[in-house]
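[step 3/7] inverse_fold.run input=structure_tokens len=714
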């Protein structure tokens, strides 16, 4: 073998060996040769490391280890330690109280001057702390802007008081918390919070039960860093709060003092602060600035099979993950509440109780007790939609047609379209999303990763004020009904995609919505599984008493699950009809093709033929009025293929080339493109294909009988 080998060459240059990186891959470890590091970069980089290391080594070298104990236990130092702990923890608390809402504001709310506010947050990080101290004096000092008012109204004098040290430490340390948390919040998938709102949770509840637990690891990292920074604060403290033993003389100030009187003791205290700072940094391992790290990997919805090996951990358990958060149970907040309210409530989705009034999962025909839908949507998507209770409407259309925009408009989650929405007698279009009673199951389910399947399912009921035990009982019943009752205590990360999908559906239905929005519930499934799950889903939808809108790209799903198919194109409804009607008379080339039909757009000509928009003409059996714009729909089975030009009755015949052959069950679909005629898909038997010796690139003729062409007015 002549290939140069990389392992263990006896004569390889050591430097060359050094620059080889071992790369871990899914299948093992392989070596790759990196370009050598330029000396001009490596040398100053090493110098920088030495520069940073030297002072630390200095402390270690000069520490009198034998005296360390006595230095650290001296009265002044222990007093300073206590004070430092008090000040740093108070500063952390204040930073949390003020900084968490500020981070949320920066991450979630658009307002003018946001960039300026962000700069203001960052300012204490770059400002010399002594300048910060001066600024604090001028703001909160006795002769500052706010100082006299604080003193007169509350009797608070910050300088020379421990509270002053807390203010100084908060001023310099809080930015670390805000920046860290803002990054984590910005990386959180909005689907979790949006789904929580669609289940009836108000913004504060969503923040406390979904947002905070999901960003807990990022928050903890930011808090640790903030605390460490507050503990080490010196410049602003001494300038603003003074150096008063027992009141404001914290550890860093003590170090400064000791340096003049007792340098060895100063070294010992410095070592203590250094050890604490190092411990915090090692504990965080660079996690604090982790923008976007708290993303949980979405799980495919309604997938019956386990995710394939190598699928990223759905719980997002690596790095700063969502699962590391405190297990805030979505069912613990909120007190007694309204329970299941019934009539007259125009603002709460709890009006949608089941006919039994118990909110118990009911059999087919009864979850919502019947909520007809009337929606008038304006904006990017423009349409009017009316549907009787229990109707499932499949929303189909090409990419970018406005399907998601329609769903988000009905949820009140997009400024791009507005929906006047009437559910039963209730106008909900002007209500915030959590008060509409519109449940949404996004494509990946968006189960809250920090809650069990049971708590996920109970979430909507709890948000609507149902008591904890009752909510859990109903949630368990829903899970059981959807065949996942035995998985109630598992977290989403421990569920297969299909199981997670069922839980997501149970969660949406348990919240007793008046309108159910499903976004491609079967998209992630393989064909066989899809058929099984479609059957199950049909059963569950039959039991839903509201209207269900189901976005799909799958024609079989649209036709088999829905009572109506709404075809969207460019934000407009081009057809809204029962599946049989859409299949027989598709009103747009796109939907015809989606349903496996050939669709040729054209205009009726004087001689009874059809002038095709793409060029050429078509002989039809039943001509329509001259000038009428129509769509000629041709089933693939009606397209015949020939090796030689067919003779005989007047037929539509075009020469073409075979471009693609795909198997559909036991038959073959053949795409034939033509320079002088339309591109057509023909469906033929495998025997016929063999007889014609069809292969990619084969020259053939396509023919269509005039009687096989259905004309649909456009
Ligand atoms: N936030 C946004 N700002 C501006 N344009 C947007 C925004 N979201 C979507 N669009 C645009 O609006 C149109 C409709 O988008 P929408 O997501 O509703 O389509 P869709 O039918 O759901 O498509 P797909 O099948 O690809 O999911 C697209 O042209 C899209 O580029």
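[step 3/7] decode complete -> sequence:
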């Amino acid at each position: 073998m002549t290939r140069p080998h990389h392992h263990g060459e006896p004569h390889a240059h050591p430097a060359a060996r050094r620059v080889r990186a071992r790369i871990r891959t899914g299948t093992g470890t392989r070596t790759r040769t990196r370009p050598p590091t330029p000396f001009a970069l490596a040398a100053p980089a090493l110098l920088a490391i030495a520069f940073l290391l030297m002072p630390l080594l200095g402390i270690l070298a000069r520490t009198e280890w034998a005296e360390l104990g006595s230095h650290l236990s001296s009265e002044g130092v222990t007093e300073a330690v206590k004070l430092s702990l008090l000040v740093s923890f108070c500063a952390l608390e204040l930073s949390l109280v003020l900084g968490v809402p500020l981070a949320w504001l920066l991450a979630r709310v658009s307002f003018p001057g946001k960039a300026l506010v962000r700069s203001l947050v960052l300012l204490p990080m770059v400002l010399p702390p002594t300048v910060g101290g001066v600024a604090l004096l001028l703001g909160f000092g006795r002769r500052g802007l706010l100082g006299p008012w604080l003193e007169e109204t509350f009797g608070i004098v910050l300088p020379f008081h421990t509270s002053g040290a807390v203010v100084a430490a908060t001023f310099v340390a809080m930015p670390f918390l805000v920046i860290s948390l803002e990054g984590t919040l910005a990386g959180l998938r909005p689907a979790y919070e949006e789904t929580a709102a669609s289940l009836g949770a108000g913004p504060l509840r969503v923040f406390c039960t979904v947002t905070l637990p999901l960003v807990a690891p990022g928050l903890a990292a930011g808090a640790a860093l903030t605390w460490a920074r507050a503990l080490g604060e010196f410049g602003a403290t001494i300038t603003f709060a003074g150096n008063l033993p027992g009141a404001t003389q914290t550890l860093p100030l003590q170090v400064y003092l000791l340096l003049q009187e007792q340098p060895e003791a100063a070294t010992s205290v410095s070592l203590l602060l250094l050890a604490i700072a190092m411990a915090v940094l090692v504990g965080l391992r660079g996690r604090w600035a982790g923008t976007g790290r708290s993303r949980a990997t979405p799980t495919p919805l309604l997938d019956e099979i386990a995710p394939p090996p190598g699928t990223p951990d759905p719980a997002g358990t690596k790095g700063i993950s969502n699962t590391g958060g405190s297990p805030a149970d979505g069912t613990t907040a909120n007190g007694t509440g309204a329970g299941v309210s019934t009539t007259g409530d125009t603002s709460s989705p709890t009006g949608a109780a089941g006919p039994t009034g118990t909110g118990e999962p009911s059999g087919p025909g009864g979850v919502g007790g019947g909520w007809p839908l009337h929606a008038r949507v304006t904006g990017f998507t423009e349409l009017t939609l009316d549907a009787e209770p229990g109707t499932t409407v499949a929303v189909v259309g090409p990419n970018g047609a406005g399907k998601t925009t329609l769903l988000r408009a009905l949820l009140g989650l997009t400024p791009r379209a507005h929906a006047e929405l009437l559910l039963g007698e209730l106008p909900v279009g002007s209500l915030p999303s959590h008060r509409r009673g519109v449940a949404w199951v996004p494509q990946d389910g968006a189960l809250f990763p920090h809650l069990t399947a049971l708590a996920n399912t109970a979430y909507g009921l709890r948000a609507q004020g149902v008591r904890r035990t009752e909510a859990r009982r109903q949630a368990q019943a829903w899970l059981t009904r959807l065949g996942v009752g035995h998985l109630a205590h598992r977290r989403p990360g421990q569920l297969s995609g299909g199981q997670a999908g069922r839980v997501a559906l149970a969660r949406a239905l348990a919240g007793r919505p008046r309108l159910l929005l499903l976004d491609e519930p079967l998209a992630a499934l393989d064909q066989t599984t899809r058929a099984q799950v479609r059957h199950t889903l049909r059963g569950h939808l039959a039991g839903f008493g509201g209207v269900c809108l189901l976005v799909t790209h799958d024609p079989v799903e649209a036709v088999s699950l829905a009572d109506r198919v709404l075809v969207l194109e460019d934000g407009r409804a081009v057809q809204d009809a029962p599946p049989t009607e859409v299949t027989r008379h598709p009103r747009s080339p796109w939907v015809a093709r989606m349903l496996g039909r050939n669709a040729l757009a054209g205009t009726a000509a004087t001689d009874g033929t059809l002038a095709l928009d793409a060029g050429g003409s078509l002989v039809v059996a039943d001509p329509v009025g001259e000038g009428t714009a129509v769509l000629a729909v041709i089933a693939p089975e009606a397209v015949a293929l020939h090796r030689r030009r067919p003779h005989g009755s007047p037929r539509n015949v075009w020469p073409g080339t075979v471009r693609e052959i795909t198997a559909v069950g036991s038959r073959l679909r053949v795409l034939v493109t033509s320079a002088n005629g339309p591109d057509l898909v023909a469906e033929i038997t495998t025997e016929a294909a063999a007889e014609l010796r069809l292969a990619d690139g084969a020259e053939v003729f396509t023919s269509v009988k005039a009687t096989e062409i259905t004309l649909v007015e456009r």
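[step 4/7] annotate
The pocket of adenosine-5'-triphosphate is lined by residues 380, 397, 399-405, 416 (CB under 6 Å).
Residues 75-108 form the longest helix (34 residues).
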